[in-house]
Amino acid sequence: MTTSDIKKFIQSIEIFKSFSDAFINKLLEIIQSGKLECGELLFEEGESAQDIYIIAEGEVLITKSVTSEIEKTLSVIGTKGIFGEMGLFSNLTRSANAKAKTDVHFYKINCQSFKDIFHIDPQGSQKFVELLLLSTMERLEHTSRELATIYEISKIITKHHSMKEFCSNILRQLCFSVPHINTGIIYLWNEFAEEYEPYAQENVQDMLSSLSKSQAIIQSLQENMYNGTLETMILYGDQIKALLGTLFVSDNMIVAPLVKANFLKGAILLYNKQGKVQHRSSVIDLLNSIANLVVEAIDNIKQKEDDQARERLKRGGAAMRW
Questions:
Q1: In b/e form, how buried is each residue of 73-93, taking b as 16+ CB within 10 angstroms?
Q2: Residue 234's CATH number
Q3: pTM listed for this prediction
Q4: Which of 4, 287, 316, 319 lies most in the core, judged by the most C-beta atoms within 10 Å?
Q5: Cα torsion at 142, 49, 83, 179 (round to 10°)?
Q6: 75, 80, 83, 85 alpha-carbon torsion, rounded to 10°
Q7: Degrees (nearest 5) of the Cα angle 269, 273, 275?
Q8: Domain of residue 88, residue span
C-alpha cells in the first residue's frame, strides 16, 4: 500500500477520525507494517507491551492461559480492530497472547512514539484516548464475565457427578452466565438406541424427544464436522425451522457441538424464550471453549460409569455362583 492508501485506511477507522490531518501525517512517519501467517504468534502473555496494533486485513486471536492445560479465547480481532493498547496507559507486561487466526496484514505503532506526538493535536488526542478507554473497558467487562464462566465450569468438572447431574449443572451454569439465555438442553449420543437423547434441560416445560441421525440439525453438524468448519453456531427464525422443525419455538438459538475424535457426541442447545436476541461473536468463542472442556469430561464420566456397571455385573455373577 502507498502512503496515501495507508492514510485513507487509518482515517477510515472511527477512533482515528478525531485527529487533524497534520497529526495523521506525523503518525504515518512512525507507523510500521507487518504480516503474519495463519497460526503465527505475534506476542505472548508476560512480554513487554511496547506497541499498539491495527489490523489491515485478516483476524487475530487474543487468548489467555486459564490453567496449565486450558487456554481461553478472549476475542477475535478483525479488520480495523485495535489491540495491545494497554501499553499506552501503563508499563505492565502483556496480559494475553495474540496469534494469527488467518494470514494477517497489520500496522503497529510504538506506544511511546505515539504519545510523543499527542501534543500536535491535544483535542484529537483526548478524544482518541476517551474512545479507546471506552472500547477497552467494554471488552474487559465481557472478558471478565467469560473467564468467570470458564472457572465455574471447571469447578463443576472437578466434582464427582453422574452423567445426568453433570449435564444439569453445566446447563444451569450456562443459562445463568451466557447473556440473554434462559433455556437450554444437552443432547448426548446413545450408542445402543443410536440416537441423541436429552440428558438435561433447563426451563423446558414440554416433553422432549430424542434426535435421530437423520434429523436435519444432526446432519448439518456432521457435514460441518467433515468439512472442518464445525464450531458453535447461532441460528435464527427460518434456520431453526429448517433444522429442527417444530421441536422448538424460539426466534434464536445457540448450538454448541460436542465433538471428539471426529465424532459428534452431542450438542448443547441454548435459547431465549422471550424473543430474538443478537449475540456477540465472543459468545461463540466462549461456547467453543466450554464445549471442548465438557466433551472431555463427558468421556471421563462415561468411562467411569461403564467401569462401575461392569464391576456390578461381575459381582452379580460371582454372587450367583455362590
A1: bbbbbeebbbbbbbbbeeeee
A2: 3.30.450.40
A3: 0.61
A4: 287
A5: -10
A6: -150
A7: 115
A8: 3-145
For position 50, which CATH number holds?
2.60.120.10
Could you report the per-residue pLDDT of 98-134, keeping only the tens digit for each?
A: 999 999 999 999 999 999 999 999 998 988 888 888 7
Question: 233 pLDDT exceeds 90?
Answer: no
- Coil, helix or strand for 110? strand
The grid coordinates listed for 3 are: 502512503
For residue 212, the number of C-alpha atoms closer than 13 Å in the C-beta half-sphere is 3
Domain count, the chain: 2
Burial group, residue 311, by CB count within 10 angstroms (0-12, 13-18, 19+) = exposed
Quote the cell numbers at residue 212: 435421530
DSSP characters over 18-86: TS-HHHHHHHHHHEEEEEE-TT-EEE-TTS---EEEEEEES-EEEEEESSSS-EEEEEEE-TT-EE-GG
Q: What is the pLDDT of residues 283-294, one digit of tens each?
A: 887 888 888 889
